[in-house]
Structure formats: structure tokens, C-alpha cells
Amino acid sequence: MGLDNENPTLFDKSEERKVSEKDLDDNEAEEFDSREIFDLIRGITDPEHPLSLEELRVVDQSLIEVEDSNNTVKVLFTPTIPHCSMATLIGLSIKVRLLWCLPPRFKISVTITPGTHASEHAINKQLDDKERVAAALENTHLSTVLNKCIATA
Amino acid sequence: MTGKLKAICTLKGHTGIVWNTSWHPKGLMLASCGEDKTIRLWNYKDGDKSTLKCLLADGHQRTVRAIAWSHCGQSLASASFDATIAIWDYKSGQFECNATLEGHENEVKSVAWSRSGSMLATCSRDKSVWVWEVWEDNEYECAAVLNAHSQDVKKVVWHPHEDILASASYDNNVKLYMEDASDKEWTCVGTLSSHTSTVWSLAFDKTGDRIVTSSDDRTLKIWQKYLPGNPEGISVKDGNFVYKCVCTISGFHTRPIYDVTWCHLTDLIATACGDNSIRIFKEEDLSDRNQPSFSCISHVNEAHLQDINSVQWNPVVKGVLASCSDDGMVKIWKMEST
């Protein structure tokens, strides 16, 4: 089977986050910000290419919204082509990575950047259905694929 | 009347998501199930004295999504993501798994016993609703496979007095089914269409003449039954009845409403929401049957630490409610009048 997008555009990786003195102070309660969320997901590997979601610009820090006090994290992701058959899997890998890493108080929403995929609405609905996500994670085959994508994050 | 919902007991034991609870018809026992593949039976006692009675652990290979007591209280049915339904019977002092029903292609999402106990309904992500006939000696026979929905079916519920079945789906609709008297074929006899996203759950009121539905679209809807020749002039096409949406309750829930329960003792409606809240609704005095209004008489913010997946009114003890959540807890609440 051929690849959906054989020749994707590559982008530079951003610099590592600078550690400030405040970061090392254990007494300082720190809020989550978009950079932290970005750092959790930018290293996820694309299911088709040995490239990260950051290099393919599927995820971008400017498309992440965090309201720590309100316990919400909203991530928009952008499939490389509008008919990408891997979009659901990519969305699921971002969602699962955040579900596993963030404190359970957060309500996590992962949706497609508006206008960038032909089946945007259907994929968003699936990713937002907690029951389907829970069932998918119990599927051995699917969770093996997901683990592979997330292992590099 | 106003009132306040007060937590009276927290039942710890499950690990991971608790998906569903079901009160025993006598109201003295509560069953819960979840991601840890177990079913737990709790003795209900007033105050904070409820305790674990027993643990049913070896029935399913994956998440136990839903459970339901038969109306006689002798059997418990459990539906699992492993595509099977298990039937547990109470014999010689303990619960034993006496039958496993196979047929659905993938995750079974809900299970319900008919009022008479002679039928069982199940539904699945495979888009189908199955009606099983219950024979003696643990024999279950598939009486119908209903393919009225175009997507994942989330919930099945029986009418409280008649053999009318309702199902709610990811396709945004609720379907109603009955057995045709002439040819004994089960058929879809109605569609409740108005929600703009997944319908997660529904409940009948004590008469069966009303249905409340809860949805991902953050609203509740109340549906009123109309018979042919009704004085209101509501058209009833080629059937025995129609359920028409007479009220939409919006502006309260801020996330999907995963479950709704309509108390047959107090007429109060309770909801389980993804915003960690439990809300209680009551029909206003002097409300018009054809255009009713409901008010939210109690709102428990942070009733659980995470999404609430199910709420169930105790069928015998007035004002007692069970809830369960992603946070692994089962809680018992009591409605106190103020």
C-alpha cells in the first residue's frame, strides 16, 4: 500500500525550553502552559513517516490553548493533506499521550484545525467520544500502534 | 419544593473508570461495574454504612460497560467491551455466571430487561440492537436483530409497563421498537430526532408517557406521547403513538450529559455530566403538559473529581441516588428537602 503523502514538507524543530530558576524551585506551584503541552506531544512519531508531529507541523504551539484554572486543554492538529487516512490515529495518539501525562483533573479536547481535513467533523466526533477512546485503548492491535507513535515523545 | 442533594457515602474499590450502576429492585443492594473488568455488589444501608457484599471478577475479558438487574431481582446481566453479555443468577447463596450471550460483533454498550422479565435487549458499536427471549434453564434465544441506527448504539431502555423498547445512538437519534401483533416481527415504530449530537442515555417517567433524553449536545429533551385522535391535533402517522419533543432543557450542562434517570417515586430527574456535576430537575407546578417547564432545583458542583458516567435513583427508598465516575468512585446521595 502506498503512502498517503509520499513527500511531506518538513519544518525545523523549535529550541529546547529554557529552564529558569523558578522551574527548579519545588515550592513554586506552577501552572501548565501551552509550551509544556507542546513539549509532551511534539515528539510523537507520525504513523506513516519516521518523523515527528512537530517536523511535519501537524502540531504547533500556537494552536494549543491551556486554561489551567479551568482545567481545560485544547489542541488543534493539522493533517498534512486533507484526505489523510491516518488523521484519526494521529489525533488519538495526541489525546492518549495527554490523558496519560496530565493530571486527571484536565478535560482534554483534540480536534482538527478547521478546514484542513475532508472528514473533519466525523473525526472530531470520534475523538471526543470517551467511550470509543476507552474501547480503542483496550484493542491490542491499536494500542501497539499507538504505543509505537508515542514511544518517541 | 426545593431540595439539596447531600453525599452520604463513598464506595471505594474499583480501579479506573466506573461506568455504570444498577439498584436491585428491592433497593437494598447496588451493583457497579467498570474498566477493571469487575462487577461489585454493595449492601445499601442508610447513612455511611454501605459495604461491599461481593465481587464478580471472572465474567469478562474487557471493560464491563453496563449492568442491569432483572425485575424479579434473581438475575443480573452485564454487557462488556469483549462483545459478550453475561447472566449472573443468585442460587444457593451466591452469584454464578450461568450464561454468556454471543452475537454482537464488537463492544456491547448497554443491556436491559423487559418489565415481565421474558426479554432482554442489548446494543453495540456494531450498530445493532438485539432482543433476546428468556426461556427457563438459562436458555436465551435471539428474537430480533434491529438495524435501525446508522451508527454505534449507546443505550437500550424498556418502557416501564409495555413491551416497547427504546435505543439511543451516536447517530443523534432515539428509535422505538415493538413486536408486530400480526406477524410477530420486531420493527422500528418511531424515531425521536432533534438532538444535534450523540444521545447518550434516556429514561421513561413512571407512566411511560414521557421520555427524557440526554446528549453530547449539552441538552436534555422531554418527549410526550400522543395517541391517534389526540385533542392537541398532533399527527400520528401509521402507528399507535408518537413521542414529540415538548421541552429542551439547555444552558445548564457545560459538557456531555452521559446519563439521565427519572425517579418513579418523586418524579425528579437527575443527570450525570462530563463537567463533574450532578443536577436535579423538577417539573414546575402548573406546568403545561404540552409545553412543560422544568427548573434545576439542585446542582452539586464537583460531585466527583472527574466525568460522571451514570446516575440511578433508588427504586424503593425515596430520594436516594447512586452515581459513578472516571475517578473510580461510586457515591450514594440523598435528596433533602429544605
From TrEMBL, chain A:
PANTHER family tied to this protein: CYTOSOLIC IRON-SULFUR ASSEMBLY COMPONENT 2B, CYTOSOLIC IRON-SULFUR ASSEMBLY COMPONENT 2B-RELATED
Protein name: MIP18 family protein galla-2
GO BP: any one term: chromosome segregation
Keywords tagged on the record: Chromosome partition
Domain MIP18 family-like: 36-110
Record family assignment: Belongs to the MIP18 family.
Lineage: Eukaryota, Metazoa, Ecdysozoa, Arthropoda, Hexapoda
One family name in Pfam for this protein: FeS_assembly_P
Gene3D superfamilies: 6.10.250.1280, Fe-S cluster assembly (FSCA)
Gene Ontology CC terms: cytosolic [4Fe-4S] assembly targeting complex
Region feature (Disordered): 1-30
Positions with biased composition (Basic and acidic residues): 12-22
Automatic annotation (TrEMBL), chain B:
Repeat as UniProt keyword: yes
Assigned keywords, A-Z: Repeat, WD repeat
GO biological process, one term: iron-sulfur cluster assembly
InterPro entries the record matches: CIAO1/Cia1, Ig-like_dom, WD40/YVTN_repeat-like_dom_sf, WD40_PAC1, WD40_repeat_CS, WD40_repeat_dom_sf, WD40_rpt
GO CC terms in record: cytosolic [4Fe-4S] assembly targeting complex
Superkingdom per UniProt: Eukaryota
PROSITE patterns, A to Z: IG_LIKE, WD_REPEATS_1, WD_REPEATS_2, WD_REPEATS_REGION
Pfam families the UniProt entry points to: WD40
Stretches assigned to the Ig-like domain: 25-112
WD repeats: 11-52, 57-98, 101-134, 146-177, 192-224, 301-338
SMART domains to which the protein is assigned, alphabetical: WD40 (SM00320)
Cited function: Essential component of the cytosolic iron-sulfur (Fe/S) protein assembly machinery. Required for the maturation of extramitochondrial Fe/S proteins. Key component of the cytosolic iron-sulfur protein assembly (CIA) complex, a multiprotein complex that mediates the incorporation of iron-sulfur cluster into extramitochondrial Fe/S proteins. As a CIA complex component, interacts specifically with CIAO2A or CIAO2B and MMS19 to assist different branches of iron-sulfur protein assembly, depending of its interactors. The complex CIAO1:CIAO2B:MMS19 binds to and facilitates the assembly of most cytosolic-nuclear Fe/S proteins. CIAO1:CIAO2A specifically matures ACO1 and stabilizes IREB2.
Family assignment from sequence similarity: Belongs to the WD repeat CIA1 family.
Protein name: Probable cytosolic iron-sulfur protein assembly protein Ciao1
Natural source organism: Aphis craccivora (Cowpea aphid)
